[in-house]
Amino acid sequence: EIPHGVRSTDYGVQCFNVATAYSVHRAVNHGEPLISRIVTLTGAVSAPQNIEALIGTPIDELMQCAGQNDAQEIIMGGPLMGFTLPTLQTGIHKASNCLIAKNDQLLPPRPPALPCIRCGECARACPARLQPMDLYWFAKAHQFGKAQEWHLFDCIECGACSYVCPSQIPLVDFYHFAKSEIWAAERD
């Protein structure tokens, strides 16, 4: 277990997904630079598939290969940690791994958030053993120093807390906002 405030690389530990391990293999054993990425195309498509795409390939071209149907949005990444792309003309990059064509049948809109009932489900779901409800209150109140004291930056933004929240509070959005505000203040 890696303690708070320390990077896993300081302990000689690194975790890679399969596509990254494959890219390292191609670079080390074959001298190939990273020019492509295996990307999963799924969701509201007629032909879900894994495809090897050159870095920089526009996402709309990739989604045409998968037969995108009635998608309203495209999510880059998984359903919990992924984010909605502002435009489909964006090109894939070296960290792109999955594109999900989203429609209301596949991923229905989230109901409106209700007040936090402090049930603790988010804390039970947190793999980093944080107190998401407290981080939520600090972020919402713009108490960024307090959020840092409660280890905001240990949050990996996995989305587990938001997923289990019976009040449908988009908790990770608040953490992302707080982190962005802290980084901006430090930059200034």
Going by helix content, strand content and strand pairing, the class is alpha+beta
Radius of gyration: 19 Å
Q: How far is the N terminus from the C terminus?
A: 34 Å
The SSE string, one letter per element, is: HEEHEEEHHHHH
Report the uncertain regions: none
Total DSSP helices? 7
Number of separate strands: 5
Q: What is the typical, i.e. mean, pLDDT?
A: 90
Name the beta content range: 5-15%
Helix content: 25-40%
Entry keywords:
five-stranded mixed β-sheet, 13% strand
Brief account:
With 188 residues, this protein is of the alpha+beta class. The protein has helices spanning 18-30, 59-65, 121-125, 132-140, 144-149, 160-164, 171-187, and strands at 36-43, 49-54, 73-76, 83-84, 98-102.
Your description of this structure?
- By secondary structure, this protein is of the alpha+beta class.
- The protein is 33% helix and 13% strand.
- The protein has helices spanning 18-30, 59-65, 121-125, 132-140, 144-149, 160-164, 171-187; strands spanning 36-43, 49-54, 73-76, 83-84, 98-102.
- The protein has a five-stranded mixed β-sheet, covered by helices on one side.
- Helix 4 (132-140) packs across helix 7.
- The radius of gyration is 19 Å and the shape is globular.
- The mean pLDDT is 90.
What layout of secondary structure does this protein have?
Layout: H1 18-30, E1 36-43, E2 49-54, H2 59-65, E3 73-76, E4 83-84, E5 98-102, H3 121-125, H4 132-140, H5 144-149, H6 160-164, H7 171-187
Parallel strand pairs: 1-5
Antiparallel strand pairs: 1-2, 3-4, 3-5
